[in-house]
Amino acid sequence: MRPLDQFDQSHDDCLVDNHDDGHDSDAPVSALTPELSFWDHLGATRADEYAQDDILTGIPLPDVPVPEPTLLSRVDMAPPQSMPQHGFTRLDETLRAQEATADPARPAPPQIPLRADMRGPGGPAGLPPAQPTARREPHAPPRGPAAKNRRKAARQPSRFSYRIQRLWLTPLYRRAIKIGLPVAASVVAIVATLASEDRRMAIVAQGDAVYSAFVDRPDFMVTELRLPDLAPELEDAIRTAISPELPKSSWRLDLEDLRARIEVLDAIRVADLRLLPDGVLAVAVTERVPAILWRSSDGLEVLDIEGKRIGFAPDRHILPDLPVIAGEGGGAHVIEALDLFEAASPLGARVRGLVRVGERRWDVVLDREQRIKLPETGAIAALEHVIALEQAQDLLSRDLIAADMRNPGRPILQISEGAMETIRAIRSQNTEALQ
């Protein structure tokens, strides 16, 4: 590479000073001419292709005028007279020598076009007139049906890819791939894992071990039972029902089962169990209230108002304030029996109790072995009728065994044998007096 001398520098300054202001100083010489640019050739080529593909069928293409470029085939770059010669030749002579020695098969180098003010003998550079050259035609694409089919095949996707794209645009197919396929794979993996009984037992054993290690920690153990103030017998019964379960983890305690065990006891109506801090199980109970005594085949039972058994009484005098009933099925009609006791309250202490007859009606038992037989329905009205007769005529103060009120429209009085003899004697005396 030879060094830059003053001749090269002056030549470059000449080229820079003589170009138009509308172009960039770094643009090539070809850009300083009115020749069509690359984008103009590209647009013309695309328009020709679209016309061949029948895309612009029937639409005339615009005729773009292309000016004839003037090329600089010879450049006279002689150094000035003041500049000493260094063995350089003129530029035109150098170009002619290169053309003479160039390879015939080698393409000719591109020629540089110049502006109009740089051409001709009158130009500032004193250049010879430019020789007109033929216009370079853009590369013409191949024509014909075969080329057209090749271009269409290159642009269009295959039938298989088209069908795959259409399937992927289907929402159901897309959900099946994104959701259904992973779920199906997971199900298959789980089924394959659980198909073996040994693997299932191993998984269950491992899960139980992990669960036991967590729930049997000392922080969750229940060790103490707290009860309210109860009768000693009832407290012992509750402790006997719950104590075998303690100590035990709060995770393993079944409070509903423990509550059912406590409520099975006769004296307990409702039980409430709560877990307190420090491993304490608190029990709150609601006891049943004794309402009546029922003499059954099992003994003297203490019942509440609902007819639930509270316990057994060894003797009637232990609970003297409670009324007494007897007979089969009497325990299922406690409320009706209490209503009859309330209606018979005017008789006071003469009322000994009620007896259930045939599991369908009541008899009121009084002292002196007297009874008031009541009907199945309207028992309270029949009892009030007898009480009214007692208050008006001292009916129950007489030698009476039973007052049968089972038919309220026709009451029957059953008297004792002594009273019958007295009535017969009175009737005989009346007969003799009339004779």
UniProtKB/TrEMBL annotation:
Composition skew (Basic and acidic residues), residue ranges: 8-26
Gene: ftsQ
Organism listed in the record: Roseinatronobacter alkalisoli
Keywords assigned by UniProt, alphabetized: Cell cycle, Cell division, Cell inner membrane, Cell membrane, Membrane, Transmembrane, Transmembrane helix
GO biological process: one example: cell division
Role this protein plays: Essential cell division protein.
Higher taxonomy: Bacteria, Pseudomonadati, Pseudomonadota, Alphaproteobacteria, Rhodobacterales
Membrane topology: Single-pass type II membrane protein
UniProt domain Cell division protein FtsQ/DivIB C-terminal: residue ranges: 293-406
Protein name (database record): Cell division protein FtsQ
Homology family: Belongs to the FtsQ/DivIB family. FtsQ subfamily.
Highest taxon of source: Bacteria
Keyword Cell inner membrane belongs to the record: yes
Pfam families: FtsQ_DivIB_C
Major localization class: membrane
Cell location: Cell inner membrane
